[in-house]
Amino acid sequence: MPDRSEDSAISFGPFRLFPKSRLLQKEGAPLHVGGRALDILIYLAERPGEVVDKRELVKRIWADVNVDEGSLRFHVAALRKALGDTGKSARYVVNVPGRGYCFVASLAQPAAPAAQQPTVDILPPRSLPAPLSKMVGREEIVDKISNGLSLHRFMTIVGPGGIGKTAVAVTVGHRRSQDFGGRVFFVDFGPLRDASHIATTIASALGLTISAEDPTPALLTFLKASPALLIFDSCEHVLDHLAPLVERIVREAPQLRVLATSRESFRSEGERIFRLFPLDCPPEREGLGVDDVLAYPAAQLFVERIAQSSGAFQLSAEEAPLVASICRRLDGIALAIELAAGRVNAYGIAGTASLLDSRFSLQWRGRRTAVPRHQTLAAALDWSYDLLPAAESATLRRLSVFAGPFAPEAAAIVAAGDGLSASETLEAIDSLVTKSLISPSGSRTLRYRLLDTTRTYAHGKLNELGETRQFARRHAEHFRDFFARAEADISTPLPEWLVIYGAELDNVRVALDWAFGPDGDTALGIALTAAAVTLWVRLSLFAECRERTRTALAALDDTGGDDHVRMQLLSALGWSLMYGEGRAREARPILETTLEIAERLDDKDFRLRALWGLCIDQFNNGQFGKARAFADRFATAAANSPDRTDLMLADRLMAVALHYLGDQDDARQRIDRVNASLHVLAEKPKIFPLDLRISTQYFRARILWLQGLADQAQALAARNIEEGRANGHALTFCSVLGQAACPIAFWSGDLEAAERHGSELLEHTERHAIRLWGLWARAFNASVAAKRGDIAVGLPLLREELNRAGDARFLPRFLPLLGELAAGFLEADQIDRGLDVIEDVLTRCNDRQELWYLPELTRIKGELTLRSPRHAGEAEAHFREAMAIAARQGARFWELRCATSLARFMAGAGQSADALTLLENVSGSFTEGADIADLRSARDLIAQLRS
Questions:
Q1: CB atoms < 10 A from the CB of 284, how many?
Q2: Count of CA atoms in the C-beta half-sphere (13 A) of 942
């Protein structure tokens, strides 16, 4: 084993490894590998030929941080790549399956003493702070900067305070120390207040005593003598004086390299800028486990710092999402993460997370040995804030009223004033970006954002100066006007509209919270609520719309307010109840009041909105005759409208009513008329929350299917899925899947597609918190399981999900699932229970005129009675009744299914010839859908009857 008392080189192949100096050379030149990879190489090379257990290696390299073997494999692969260890020729590190890793290279024997080269004393780096015990998440960056110094003589690491610029620079200094013969000098300009002392500060760090009035010539003489690396730290406040000096010394000392850290660049000749970004954070996503969270450097740093301050620590599955949230809320800023980790011992992870919203978190203290500006977040931000000119500090304070990213135009409107013009505000923003206090957003259009810690700090300054109310009001007024324009913007396609306006959701929320708060402006809050309704509807945020409009209406009742605003808010509340809760008892009286006000004000748009809402409310409550009456009233009101889309909406509404009432031929005529006019649709209908093109097609697909046009229906449903997915409207896509894709796949017998669509719908509803469709999706997925033959699992689950749905099961979309429940009892040979269900559902259909599914329910009743000793004689009558209803409705698909059941019954009763004639007549009329399950069954039965 190599002697570790000195930094003896371990030589193998073309490589020499110096463990203590953490230096790897290839053919005499430094070879840079990642920090973890180098740790692994050193540990294995010091134990040549010994198989080191993977767990031991992980514990050694990562100490008290819990990581999986995937991280070890990743860094071993990186090490092998650096060594050129391909497994085909040179072999250095091998994996011993089931055991661990082994260093297998042949070690070169040290030469005889007479032949040894004289030892070169490597001076320790001058004034360079001690290296961090571990650098988390920055190994690749350290490598890039280390390599960059071989190509560029002057590099600046730029980033906001606390992001880790100094730590990276110090690590690079230690990494490159041997290359410069130990001549690495660290100059901290942080404490310097008088820029005239810059040169003497550098001289002091170099260990020079210079008595001349101008120390620059002596500095240059020293720096020209041999290679050296100068690390200038915290330069932002002395840039004007330091930049020309750096240019000069780099120009006149050709062996010199300069690495600087600053919150803005020098903008000097020859400078190469390396912008240091926050550590990668775990995403905001459901179901993140421990391994998922610890794959991100921000979380690794957080957990490692907990272990350093509190002892061995293992992250639990319950705490992993909290750690992910903490890292995101701290924007991946290394200093902020370290300070938060230091609180965990006192408050726990949940308690630490809850404290992040308070300004108290800005005062959390870090290491006692840290420089003052790094001991608290407030100190780090004070350092930057105190260096700002008045215009920039005022702009930063005022921009703290924004939540999340903001557009330059919005910033100019809100932050300008009080002696600061819009152009001066934008100029100040540009300067704040260069100083790393504002970050450009990653969106396609130009937007800016303040890091959350910076925003909290700046908002505190806004409060201290008594400016909060003034600029919170401007912020709310801007978004009131902004969303008033958004409501009128009906020509922008929905995906683009959502990009433009959906990005401002957090700003609307903050503005409303202020407006209805103790220091706010209620009238402004009411106006903003009314303006923002379109945003909530198009984002399918019906629960939020409901609560916000209730708050505004309560405030309006206190202040009186005008009827037009009241009508807007009532309409929004009624629609949010109707689309968000389905059978909401409150919806009807609210929509009736909306209609009453609209009639009084003679407001065409809101008259139609109210009539549409009342019609949908009748659908939801099972009153299909009344729903048709409202559809007629809507058509009458739209007849005189100059807006052609109102007439299209009237036809669509009537088509849906006729479809549910069981008149598929007239429904087809209406829906085709809408389809034929879609090419002229240039704008989104003002009164309709869904996409008219897409919503027309999913009901058209349903109608085509029932009419026996299976190929057309399936092709249309497939296109509809792609269009709905691209459209981006959450509620519309629920209807695409739930109204057409899922049922058509189920009826066709393509249970694999049905399962796929049902799973996608459930995931979509969970992601967007759309409760009603989520209930339906769970019940539908259970029915698919039962249909696949897994009755033992599917049937109880379907019952459970339908019971969980409560009153929602009376919505039209749940009717086929109730039919499948009865069919499931048939398959489970629980005939009486099936008959009980079918009788209840048939009563519902007849009472409510919900006739579209009546043929199938009557057929299922026939199958159940056929298996019941008490009712077997009734089966044929039920099959014939079901066929007759289907024929009257123009529902040839139901007619085929009923004919198959009747033919099978007749064959069993010895009437095979009549059964064959019946089934050939019905199935022979089909020109499409040869591969659907019902036509296959009919063909098989025909073949049996013929034989």
A1: 10
A2: 16
Q: Which tokens sit at 436? A: 């790393």
- Distance, CA of 678 to CA of 693 (rounded, Å): 7
Phi-psi region of 489 (alpha: psi -120 to 50; beta: other; left: phi over 0): beta
Q: In what order do the strands lie in the sheet with 23-26?
A: 10-12, 15-18, 23-26, 29-30
**What amino acid occupies position 418?**
D
Torsion, CA 236, CA 241, CA 247, CA 248, rounded to 10:
-150
Angle at 340 between CA 335 and CA 343, to 5 degrees: 135
Q: What does pLDDT average to over the chain?
A: 85
773 versus 128: which is more confidently predicted?
Answer: 773
How many whole angstroms separate alpha carbon 287 and alpha carbon 321? 8
Tokens representing residue 32 in the block: 């840079």
Model confidence pLDDT, tens digit, residues 319-373: 889 899 888 888 888 877 877 787 777 778 888 777 665 544 444 444 444 444 4
Give the SS3 label for residue 231: strand
933-946 helix and 892-908 helix, angle to the nearest 10 degrees: 30
State how far Cα 502 lies from the chain centre: 14
**pLDDT at residue 204, rounded to an integer:** 81
pLDDT higher than 80, residue 113 = no
What residues contact 100, with CB distance under 8 A and at least 6 apart? 51, 52, 53, 54, 56, 57
Q: Please report the pLDDT score of residue 873 as a whole number.
A: 87
Burial of 176 (0-12, 13-18, 19+ CB in 10 A): buried
Are 37 and 82 in contact by the 8 Å Cβ rule? The answer is yes
759: how many CB neighbours lie within 10 A of its CB?
A: 15
Report the C-alpha gap between 449 and 358 in whole angstroms. Answer: 20
Strand extents, DSSP E, 289-400: none
Q: Which of 17-26, 61-70, 174-183, 186-195 has the highest mean pLDDT?
A: 174-183
Residue 654's pLDDT is 96
C-alpha dist (Å) from residue 788 to 782, 792, 793, 800: 10, 11, 11, 18
Q: How far is it, in rounded angstroms, from Cα 255 to Cα 199? A: 19
Q: Yes or no: say if 726 and 944 are a contact pair by the CB < 8 Å rule.
A: no
293-302 pLDDT, tens digit each: 888 988 988 8
3-state secondary structure 810-850: HCHHHHHHHHHHHHHHHHCCCHHHHHHHHHHHHHHHHHHCC
Instruction: Tell me: pLDDT of 114 over 50.
Output: no
Has residue 531 got a pLDDT over 90? yes
pLDDT band for position 708 (cuts 50, 70, 90): very high
- Are the C-beta atoms of 702 and 659 separated by less than 8 Å? yes
CB atoms within 10 A of CB 160: 24
Evaluate whether 128 touches 173 at the Cβ level (below 8 Å). Answer: yes
pTM of the model: 0.66
Residues contacting residue 379 through CB under 8 Å, at least 6 positions apart: 372, 373
Contact at 8 Å (CB) between 396 and 465?
no
Q: How far is CA 171 from CA 143, 228, 257, 935, in A?
A: 10, 16, 15, 73
CB distance 146 to 170 below 8 Å:
no
Measured distance CA(323)–CA(491) in Å, rounded: 43
Determine contact, residues 90/83, Cβ cutoff 8 Å.
Answer: yes
The residue written with tokens 């689950």 in the block is 797
φ/ψ of residue 272, rounded to 5: -110, 125
**For residue 372, which phi and psi values (nearest 5 degrees)?**
-50, -40
pLDDT at 7: 58
**Alpha carbon distance 256, 493 (integer Å):** 57
**Residue 391 has which token pair?**
């215009």
736-770 pLDDT per residue, tens: 999 999 999 999 999 999 999 999 999 999 888 88
Confidence band, pLDDT 50/70/90 cuts, at residue 210 = low
